[in-house]
């Protein structure tokens, strides 16, 4: 009986968090150990970028998530700052994902009006990128793209293979 259950689980087309990543699908990996993000597509790491993550390890959640919201010139609700305003800390793009049961409007990958923060542990949980880099990612990663966030000494190639995003 256990063997049958194991076969069903491993053969299932669904993961507990949705559809399996398929080598070739867009996939994003964020490594909090190095504050780097990799964009994976067509079974290969296509680009890597420096990012900023949470002030503490706990602030930026770890796990496998899905992109659920995308916005150009996002509105910053906390301080009522419209999109496109130079005071807006979210920059020019928002790629929201469903971490910790949220709807993609709490945790996200976004630009910043503080480019000197990139590479640091400084955010309240989101992942900050330089504007040109998040704009590139925004155009490449459709809704439903998997976002893996880890703190690991493994390479992006190792992580991508482990999670089925790399060939």
Short description:
This protein is an alpha/beta fold and 167 residues long.
List the helices and strands and how they pair.
Layout: H1 2-11, E1 14-15, E2 18-19, E3 27-31, E4 36-41, E5 44-50, E6 53-54, E7 63-72, E8 93-97, E9 107-110, E10 121-123, E11 127-128, H2 131-140, E12 146-150, H3 156-162
Parallel strand pairs: 3-12, 6-10, 9-11
Antiparallel strand pairs: 1-2, 3-4, 4-5, 7-8, 7-12, 8-9
How is this structure best described in words?
- There is one protein chain.
- The chain starts with a helix and ends in a 5-residue tail after the last helix.
- The protein has one domain: Beta Barrel (L,D-transpeptidase catalytic domain-like).
- The N terminus is likely disordered.
- It is an alpha/beta fold.
- It has three helices and twelve strands.
- Helices cover 16% and strands 32% of the residues.
- An eight-stranded mixed β-sheet has the order 5-4-3-12-7-8-9-11, sandwiched between helices. It has a two-stranded antiparallel ribbon with strand order 1-2. Strands 6-10 form a two-stranded parallel sheet.
- Pathway: Glycan biosynthesis; Cell wall biogenesis; peptidoglycan biosynthesis.
- Belongs to the YkuD family.
- It holds the Pfam family YkuD.
- One of its GO terms (molecular function) is transferase activity.
- Keywords: Cell shape, Cell wall biogenesis/degradation, Hydrolase, Peptidoglycan synthesis, Transferase.
């Amino acid at each position: 009986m256990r063997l049958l259950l194991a076969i069903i689980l491993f053969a299932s087309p669904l993961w507990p968090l949705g559809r399996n990543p398929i080598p070739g699908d867009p996939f994003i990996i964020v490594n909090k150990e190095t504050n780097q993000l990799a964009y994976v597509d067509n079974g290969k790491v296509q680009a890597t970028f420096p990012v900023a993550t949470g002030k503490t390890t706990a602030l930026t959640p770890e796990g496998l998530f899905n992109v659920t919201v995308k916005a150009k010139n996002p509105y910053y609700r906390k301080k009522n700052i419209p999109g496109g305003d130079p005071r807006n800390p979210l920059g020019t793009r928002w790629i929201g994902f469903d971490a910790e049961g949220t709807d993609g409007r709490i945790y996200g990958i976004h630009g910043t009006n503080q480019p000197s923060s990139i590479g640091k542990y400084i955010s309240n949980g989101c992942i900050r990128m330089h504007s040109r880099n998040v704009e590139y990612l925004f155009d490449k990663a459709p809704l439903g793209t998997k976002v893996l966030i880890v703190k690991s000494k493994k390479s992006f190639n190792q992580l991508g293979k482990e999670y089925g995003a790399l060939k």
